[in-house]
């Protein structure tokens, strides 16, 4: 199989974790006789520094010419004081919108070998296995107006939570599709006792549910969901929710597994061009030190092989290798006891060898 | 001291927990030679059934004629299909707005005797002691438009996150005031990398911080905050945030202590008329069974004695009694092992006796 992969390392540890991931993809290509071509693009702070914009046109073109995209991370203190349009995050948000990457999938699954790393007790997290399906191109993130105004004669500021009905429908369809291949349970999270958008969300969820008679639908208020994720995370199979709620709940849920350094994600579009990235950020404090955990990005690449290229066996090979390397006790600094950590490159080598 | 207290039991377990709390307040009045007069008002589903509206004018009048308000809880499946204006929550939201109860304080403090009840490991929760200061009368909860619209020719829905600058300022002032009497650390939670309202929030936070040179201010993104609450809850002293973020984070934080049945809250206005209520809801599934945990409401009454009436000794007496009763091993069903639970009334009696 011949595929073109756009690589957007971005800022901070983004470069390090993407480098290691590319090594592994090359090993996969060799072993399974595929041809992967890698095209690098600039995004985030790096792009601001080199091109004066967080998402250069070239980068969009590189993505559109590719079969899938792997992103590292964006952001850092260097650009924190920049005006909004010149901040690294804008690059990522604009790319999501530009490529219509509306469905962000974040699997939360505990690793047998890392059960002790969670702040939660073992009996709460053992066997947790769910997916958060976050809407990624609507809601408060993109609604207009988003500006300072004078309201009733006073200084004020407004943001707008806007959804078109079809945007709500397609993300719910994604969630039901995923659930129908899993344990057939969808938890739709909203705030229907306060927000009109949530009431529409709930209606649409009911409509979509009617088309999937073998999948059960449960509605849960977002405040309760934030509690239930800690109280009994095993109850969930597929959680579907709007953009901002999904941002908050998925970072919270990451704590179940013990480290953000393990969590992969896929952002899917209807065009078939999808983006894969670790859930963690650019971690400027540890950037360039060869200590970041590359596993989240490596597992994102496995998601890419499965989801974008249909390479199930290859995806499994990576996941298996990661499991074996963790079972053998290899830990990067985020998970290791003092003085026992292996480096970014070392754990990458171990995983490559375990393939 | 002579005080008038408005009692709004509301729905579900609201009545049971308020009943027990009134018993305890009567015991306090007797013991410390105060006169508390109790005036009952209708709110929520109960008010809908009896008066056709979730917040009757009489109830507002009763509140305004009182020195403080104790609320039980509102809501239940009976009214879930009602149109928005006839839902129980509307009564609570309208009361918050009507009385300008803008500062919702939710203390999160672990009980020595209940450390094992948390889903989190003991070493994570032992010694946790912080307050969430949630803005309660602005943001997405009250912004207009909040309605179905046609947008770019398509069915859509919009909600509005609106803040006047002074609303942001006064909640931050509340937080800094509280922090200056505690460990002098404020964590201001926002989503400044996405929302314009958060950027104004951050600016105002900096302005207010400049007036409190002995209090340190830290900004934290809401997704990170959702994670940090689980990862290292001890880092927090005072968390201040907008309405919706506060709703989500405070329910999440309740899991640190192990049960929502223990968490009290105060909603403060600038007029001096404050409302006190448990953080938990009306729990329709266990209503009328005499098994609800009344401690959250009892501790809310203690907050009232301290905050509204300046009765520090009396507040401490209640808190001490609750501690003793928990230390002696008394547990309601939410915290007990099977078959070992005491009833709502029993634990109320125990606390009264321990005064
Ligand atoms: C960087 C930021 C804008 C982004 C978001 O809020 O979506 C990040 O937190 C994420 O979850 O991917
Ligand atoms: C009942 C509901 C409207 C309310 C809220 O969202 O504010 C509740 O969840 C709370 O936290 O007091």
Topology:
Two copies of one chain form a homodimer.
Chain A: E1 2-10, H1 14-32, E2 35-40, H2 45-51, H3 57-64, E3 68-73, H4 88-98, E4 103-109, H5 122-125, E5 129-135, E6 139-151, E7 154-164, H6 165-180, E8 185-190, H7 196-210, E9 216-221, H8 222-231, E10 238-241, H9 243-257, E11 264-268, E12 274-278, H10 295-307, H11 312-327, H12 344-354
Parallel strand pairs in A: 1-2, 1-3, 3-12, 5-10, 8-9, 8-10
Antiparallel strand pairs in A: 4-5, 4-11, 6-7, 11-12
Helix pairs in contact in A: 1-10, 1-12, 6-7, 8-9, 10-11, 11-12
CATH class of the largest domain in chain A: Alpha Beta
Helical segment count of chain A: 12
Give me the side-by-side strand order of the main sheet of chain A. 2-1-3-12-11-4-5-10-8-9
For CATH, the homologous superfamily of the largest domain in chain A is named as Isopropylmalate Dehydrogenase
Shape of chain A: globular
CATH architecture field of the largest domain in chain A: 3-Layer(aba) Sandwich
Structure notes:
The structure is a homodimer of 355-residue chains. The first copy, chain A, is α/β, with parallel strands linked by helices and 355 residues long. The first copy, chain A, has two domains: 1-99 and 273-355, 3-Layer(aba) Sandwich (Isopropylmalate Dehydrogenase); 111-256, Isopropylmalate Dehydrogenase, CATH 3.40.718. The first copy, chain A, is built from twelve helices and twelve strands. In chain A, the strands form two sheets. In chain A, strands 2-1-3-12-11-4-5-10-8-9 form a ten-stranded mixed beta sheet, sandwiched between helices. In chain A, strand 8, helix 7 and strand 9 (216-221) form a beta-alpha-beta unit. In chain A, helix 1 (14-32) runs parallel beside helix 12 (344-354) and helix 8 (222-231) runs parallel beside helix 9 (243-257). The longest helix of chain A has 19 residues, at 14-32. The interface between A and B is large, with 57 and 57 residues. Strand 7 (154-164) of chain A pairs antiparallel with strand 7 (154-164) of chain B.
């Amino acid at each position: 199989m011949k595929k073109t992969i756009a690589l957007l390392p971005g800022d901070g540890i983004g470069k390090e974790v993407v480098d290691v991931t590319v090594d592994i993809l090359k090993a996969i290509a060799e072993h399974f006789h595929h041809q992967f071509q890698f095209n690098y693009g600039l995004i985030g702070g790096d792009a601001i520094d080199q091109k004066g914009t967080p998402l250069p046109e070239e980068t969009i073109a590189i993505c559109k010419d590719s079969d899938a995209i792997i992103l590292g991370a964006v952001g850092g203190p260097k650009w924190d004081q920049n005006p909004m349009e010149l901040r690294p995050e804008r690059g990522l948000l604009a790319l999501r919108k530009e490529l219509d990457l509306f469905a962000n999938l974040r699997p939360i699954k505990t690793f047998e070998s890392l059960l002790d790393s969670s702040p939660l007790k073992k009996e709460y997290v053992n066997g947790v296995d769910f997916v958060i399906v976050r809407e990624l191109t609507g809601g408060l993130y993109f609604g207009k107006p988003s500006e300072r105004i004078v309201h009733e004669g006073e200084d004020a500021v407004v943001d707008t939570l806007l959804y078109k009905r079809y945007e709500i429908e397609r993300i719910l369809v994604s969630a039901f599709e995923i659930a129908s291949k899993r344990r057939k349970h969808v938890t739709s999270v909203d705030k229907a006792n306060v927000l009109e958008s949530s009431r529409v969300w709930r209606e649409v969820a009911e409509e979509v549910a009617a088309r999937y008679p073998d999948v059960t639908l449960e509605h849960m208020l977002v405040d309760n969901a934030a509690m239930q994720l800690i109280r009994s995370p095993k109850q969930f199979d597929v959680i579907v929710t709007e953009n901002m709620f999904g941002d908050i709940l998925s970072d919270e849920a990451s704590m179940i597994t013990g480290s953000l350094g393990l969590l992969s994600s896929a952002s899917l579009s209807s065009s078939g061009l999808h983006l894969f990235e670790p859930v963690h950020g650019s971690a400027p404090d540890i950037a360039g030190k060869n200590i970041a955990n590359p596993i989240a990005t490596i597992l994102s690449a496995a998601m890419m092989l499965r989801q974008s290229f249909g390479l199930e066996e290859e995806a499994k090979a990576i996941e298996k290798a990661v499991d074996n390397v963790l079972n053998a006790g290899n830990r990067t600094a985020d998970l290791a006891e003092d003085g026992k950590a292996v480096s970014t490159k070392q754990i990458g080598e171990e995983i490559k060898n375990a393939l």
